[in-house]
Every structure is written in C-alpha cells, then in structure tokens.
Amino acid sequence: MKSPCIAQLVTLAVLVFGGVETASANPIYSFATVDVPGALDAYAQGVNNSGQIVGWFMDPSGREHGFFDMGGNLTTIDVPGAYNTVVYGINNSGQIVGEFQAFGGPYQGFLDTGGSFTTIDVPGAYDTVAFGINNSGQIVGYFDAFGGPPQGFLDTGGSFTTVDVPGALDTVARGINNSGQIVGVFDDTLGRHGFLDTGGSFTTIDVPGFAGETEVFGINDSGQIVGYYPTMGEHGFLDMGGSLTIIDVPGATLTVAYGINDSGQIVGSFLGDGEVSGYLATPATTPEPPSSLTLALCLVALFAIAYRRKGARAVIVRQRDLEEISEPGRGGVSGIAEPTEIVRYFPIKRSPSHKAYVLHRRRDARKQGEGASHVANV
Fold first, then answer.
1. Entry pTM
2. Is 38 contained in some domain?
3. CA 54 distance to own-chain centroid
4. Dihedral in degrees, nearest 10, Cα atoms 206, 139, 164, 270
5. Is residue 188's pLDDT more than 90?
C-alpha cells in the first residue's frame, strides 16, 4: 500500500497540472465515525439539513438493514416482509428512500414516510432502486428491464420520466436537489463518469486526470457536488463550481463521499482496520491556499519519489469493475503474475443484476460465497 504522503502528492500534481482551481474557500473537516453496534460494515448514505443521517449496514448473518441516526441515536429500518433493506436518501421532512428485496426476489424501491412504506416500481421494470429525494418529494434512482441496461428515472408524484445521458451505455441517477438538478453516474466506451442534469441539459463531471474513473453521488441546494475517484488509493471529493476539495478520512485506505446537506456536511464511508464504516464530515475551518513555493517543493518531492521507485511499480490488473493490485512482496510479482491477494476494489455494482454503486471490499464475497472470481464477472 502506498503511503498517504505519496497519494496526496500525486493528487496535488493532478490538480495543479489538470487546471483545477484551488480556492481559499475550500474547507477542511472534522470527522465523526458513524457505526452500527454489532454490524460487519456500515455505509452512511444521506444527510439532511437537521443532521439526520441515513444509510445501511450488514449484520453478522449477511443480511442488510437500513438505519436512521439522529445525534447518535440509531433506529433500524426494515421494510415489512423484506429479507434485505438498504436506505440511501432523506429529505428535510424526514422522508426516506431506498431499496428492499424479498428472499430471492427482485429489488424494489421504497418511500418511508414516518414509518408508512410505499413501494416504488417503474412500470415494466424488473429492478427499481430509489436513491435520492428532495423536499418536494421528487425521487430519483434507476431501473432495469429484463436483460436491459440500467436507466435513470425521476419520479414526480408517481409520474416517471427516464433520465438517460445521451450516448451512455447505462445511467444511474443518484441525487436531486430542491431546484430539480440531478446528479449521477454513467458508463460509456471510455469508462465511468459523473453527470449533472439541469432541466435535461447534461454536463459530464470528471476529476481532471481521471476521465473515465469518476463517480458522482450527491448534490445540495448550492450546487455543491460530492463523489469519488481513484488514485493511489480511493478518495472522496467535493466539487464547488469546479474547485475541488479532496475528502479523506484520516488513516483510511478508501474514502467515498455519498451525500451533502446545505451546511456542507458530508456523509460517506471509509475502509479502516479491515472494516467499512460510515462517517460525517463537518466543515471546521477555512485554510489559506498553498503558496507557490509549497506547491513547487511538493512537486519536487513527488518526482524524487517517483524516480527512486521506478523499479518497484505495482502491477495493475483490471477486470471490468474490479481492480486488483499486486505489489512487490505480495506473492512475488514478476511481469504480470496472478495476484495472490486482493488489495483493493473500485466501487462496483452491488449484485449480478446491476445493483447500486457502493463502496465495497468484501460484500459480494460475503453474500455470494464466490470470492473475487464472482466480483470480477459482475
């Protein structure tokens, strides 16, 4: 595993040479862990303006449950009769959206209004997943027909509109704000990208230097967008009108940012100590921008490190959504050898039926019992 220092230097170089503006208004954060007692993994997915957090966790048996966190007081959310329940979004009225599954059945979306559950199914779809909801009750998500690719949708009072990025292989709508702006993820022949949909006008979102490897998950009423990208580790990011802030939980090897409220609080998940936990990032202070001398010294250090490590580069093997990294000393890499240990994953689709994009290290292996070979063929 590369050191955090190197990862930050590489990211700094990308931001500088990629032309991304680094503004003095970029915040730094205080982090609080969001965990469910007794859970194997926990994922914080959404946060509203009252600081109420929703997400989901996996119990020791491998079943999934939603949770609602109000100031550390946790409530489990299970759709009645469901085998698995996953929660993704919450609005300022406390309405909650997500997905549920009967044992062995398709995935269906749901709306939870004060404990009253309404099923959300796009007409003609096999799977439907609801990801985001705004204060008007508009819901976004994705669906897939039998054998078809995932397509985004907007549900306005039971009237469904398809959200598809022109030319995309598939589209997933992840978040919506009170202006009706929609963000999400799409795949094309070049890879995976984020998008912003403003009244049917689509803008592609790629972290500079990582076109085809950027995912977008949430948006607030100021148009601030959060997501994820990979470089020598996986990082969350905040996009404020083109000015990027890296979101990394201290000590974590992977960080993903899923949701953001109007106060700039961000929720997501991180990998640390071998388990996935949720986090809440609260803006703390506003630092001064780095000086030209600081940037120059960092770049010199970056190039010196790269020169010293020329003969010890990791071998990267890509298999669709899976990235396995074999490093020298892990199984004796010579050329491109079969890796003996999986070091990290990209966020991948959550099941063979093209489920949600989530931070994920062992989840499919736990649920399916098929290990890396299963994940590589998702």
1. 0.74
2. yes
3. 14
4. 30
5. yes
